[in-house]
Structures are given as C-alpha cells and as structure tokens.
C-alpha cells in the first residue's frame, strides 16, 4: 500500500413443522491480530460448498438458504407495468427483454416451504414502523422490489415517495409505514475535501445519524470495495489518522465493517430495532462458472441466459468478501441476522438485466460483450425472493 503522511494532505419460526436438516456451519478460526486475520482470509481454501453460519440469531430447523429453484407459474408476484417505482436499469420487460421464463421460478428450501408473501400481512405487522435498506444499488434493487410486492396487494392505497440522495423514502400512508433506502455503498463515510473524496474507514457518524430511528435495518456492502479505475468511489483512504492512495481491499473492507459493527453495537436498541445484513450478491460475467452450453461459447457474460443453474454446490469462486462478513457478524453483540442469499443467487445467471436496461443506448445494447449488466437484477425477479426470505424471517 502507498502511504501519504498527514502533512501531504490538508487537515481540515421459521414456521411450523419443518423436518430437521443438519449441516455444518462455516466458521473460520482466525488468529488474533489484524494482519493474521487478513492472511487467514487470503490463504483459506476455496469455498467447497455453501453452508449456513452458526451465528444466525433466530435458529430454526429450516435451512432457508439451502435448496433448489422450481418452476411455478403462479409467479411473478407483480407486473412491472403496475409498479412505477422500478428504475430503468432494473426494468427488463419494459426495455425489451424477449423471454419471461426467468420470472417463473420459486425458491424451495430443502426441508420446508416458504410462506407466500402477503403485502397486507406486511403492512399490518409493520404499521407505524420505519424499514430502512442501507448500502449500494443492490440494496436499492431490493428496496424497489419490496415496495412493488406490497403495492400489488394494495393497488389503490394512498402512497407518497420522496426521492433524494442519499435518502429516498416510500410511505404507505394509511398504515404509517415508511420503507427507505439510504445510499452508502461502503457503509462508512466518504468526505470530500478540496475536491478529493476520502473514504474514512473509522468514520460513520454522518451516515449513522440517518439510521438511528429505524425499526428494521437491512445493510449490504461488498461490490464497491473491489472497484478500480473510473468505477472507484474514492480518491484516498483515511485510516488511523493516515492517508493511503490504496490498500489491500479486504483489509479496507474489514476495517470498514468493524466500524459499522461497532456503530450497531453502540447505537442500536435491540429492544426496538431488528438488524439484518444481506450477504454478497454474485455477478455472472464468467460463463465458465456454468459450463460449456451453447450461449457460453458465444458470449462473455450473462447475455442470452434464460434458465437457472442446477446443483447444491457453489459453481464459481465464492466471494472473498463473505469471509470478512462472517467473521465480523459472528463477533457482534447486537443480534444481526445474515440473509445469506449468495448461493441461491449464484444459481440465477438468468436473472440479470443484461442489455435490457433503460440506462443503455441502442449502440450499447448492440454490444453485449462490453455493456451487459450482469450485476443488478431484473424486477420482477430475484430480489423478490430476497424479500420473501426477509418476510419469512421477520414474521415466522
């Protein structure tokens, strides 16, 4: 890493009767000390199969996040044309996606059946509450999905939306329910000083002040820690009173998540606020992860994929960031439920916007090898399942 001295920079349950399903939890035994932790993360062998962490706060005999995708023609739960909140980048049907089978899959855990999402139940149980999603655009993807799912049950209800940056809020006025999205892709603060963006690995007060009054918090982070070049969201990193041009990205993420977890442990009132952390949402830019099918031989990403993968083992390289997430959440004092959607989402190579995004020009759509979006998800689509799992954990 390159270090700048301070004088070089201005100071300035789940439900009824599920059959027991036993499987081993993935826990990492790290040595004490920061450098030892990172070496353990880097040197740990590849993730051989997806396993449920032991530190989830509401234990049950249902393995929610282990299962298969099954076709179900009663899906999707809403139509894109009836949900005006969907951003152009997620609205695949509106922007010309020709296939629709990707909308017809339901997540089936191995040893129980998920309750079907009911928007009226969500409204009645969350009356007068404030639900807040905090994180990057994957959090916004999930936020919009939840609003669409609830709205489908109450199409004539009076609502209000206030869009802003970093905070946007959708209100179901009759029930006094607010569902918000707060954009904080690193969770920790970014300050701009004399035009320079500074990622503050030990700073979170500016963001955290906006989260304190939420009744339910759903956090996510991950992708932005790896961005480089024009996609990098900062110019300098501040840590321990020193400034860095760059550092090991897992080191930076671990420090940032420690700051976040300390904030949760310090400021969250566990008697009134429930905390969730959404695991890493996978991307599909490497067709070798799902074999040598016809589309994989002619494209370099998810373009043209129309069906999920099968199997119960992780087909690609398990995200290194998740090892950091596991360790940090395991050591928290405030119960924080890991919505472990990484494996089930990895199977959905068919669920991305690809070139069917309103953010792309016709010329960009004509070159899917360079422009296909294989990071975000179509709506309706996969984030609806994330919210069905969220609904299940909240209420059952």
TrEMBL record:
Please state which protein family the record places this protein in. Belongs to the PC-esterase family. TBL subfamily.
Q: Which InterPro entries match?
A: TBL, TBL_C, TBL_N
Q: How does it sit in the membrane?
A: Single-pass membrane protein
Full protein name: Trichome birefringence-like N-terminal domain-containing protein
MF terms per GO, please? O-acetyltransferase activity
Q: Where does the UniProt entry say this protein principally localizes?
A: membrane
- Entry keyword set: Membrane, Signal-anchor, Transmembrane, Transmembrane helix
PANTHER family xref list: PROTEIN PMR5, PROTEIN TRICHOME BIREFRINGENCE-LIKE 9-RELATED
* Domain Trichome birefringence-like N-terminal stretches: 61-112
């Amino acid at each position: 890493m390159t270090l700048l001295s301070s004088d070089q920079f201005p100071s300035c349950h789940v439900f009824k009767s599920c059959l027991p399903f036993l499987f081993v939890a993935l826990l990492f035994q790290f040595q004490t000390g920061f450098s030892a932790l990172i070496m353990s993360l880097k040197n740990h062998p590849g993730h051989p199969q997806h396993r449920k962490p032991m530190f989830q706060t509401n234990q049950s005999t249902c393995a929610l996040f282990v299962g298969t995708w099954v076709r179900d023609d009663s899906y999707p739960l809403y139509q894109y044309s009836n949900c005006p909140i969907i951003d152009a980048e997620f609205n695949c049907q509106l922007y010309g996606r020709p296939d629709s089978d990707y909308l017809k899959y339901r997540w089936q855990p191995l040893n129980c059946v998920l309750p079907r999402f009911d928007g009226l139940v969500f409204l009645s149980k969350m009356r007068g509450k404030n639900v807040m999603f905090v994180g990057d655009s994957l959090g916004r993807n999930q936020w919009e999905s939840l609003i669409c799912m609830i709205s489908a049950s109450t199409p004539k209800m009076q609502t209000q939306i206030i869009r802003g940056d970093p905070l946007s809020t959708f209100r179901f006025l009759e029930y006094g329910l607010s569902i918000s999205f707060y954009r904080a892709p690193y969770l920790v603060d970014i300050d701009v000083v004399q035009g320079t963006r500074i990622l503050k690995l030990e700073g979170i007060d500016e963001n955290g002040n906006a989260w304190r009054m939420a009744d339910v918090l759903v956090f996510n982070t991950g992708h932005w820690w790896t961005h480089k070049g024009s996609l990098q969201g900062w110019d300098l990193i501040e840590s321990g009173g020193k400034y860095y041009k760059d550092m090991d990205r897992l080191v930076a993420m671990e420090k940032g998540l420690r700051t976040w977890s300390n904030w949760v442990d310090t400021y969250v009132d566990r008697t009134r606020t429930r905390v969730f952390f959404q695991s890493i949402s996978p991307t599909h830019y490497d067709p070798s992860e799902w074999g040598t099918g016809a589309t994989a031989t002619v494209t370099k990403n998810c373009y043209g994929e129309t069906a999920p993968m099968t199997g119960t083992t992780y087909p690609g390289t398990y995200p290194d960031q998740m090892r950091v997430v596991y360790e940090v959440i395991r050591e928290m004092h405030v119960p924080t439920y890991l919505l472990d959607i990484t494996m089930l989402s990895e199977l959905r190579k068919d669920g991305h916007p690809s070139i069917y995004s309103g953010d792309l020009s016709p010329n960009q759509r004509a070159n899917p090898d360079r422009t296909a979006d294989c990071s975000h998800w179509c709506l309706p689509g996969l984030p609806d399942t994330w919210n069905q799992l969220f609904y299940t954990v909240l209420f059952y």
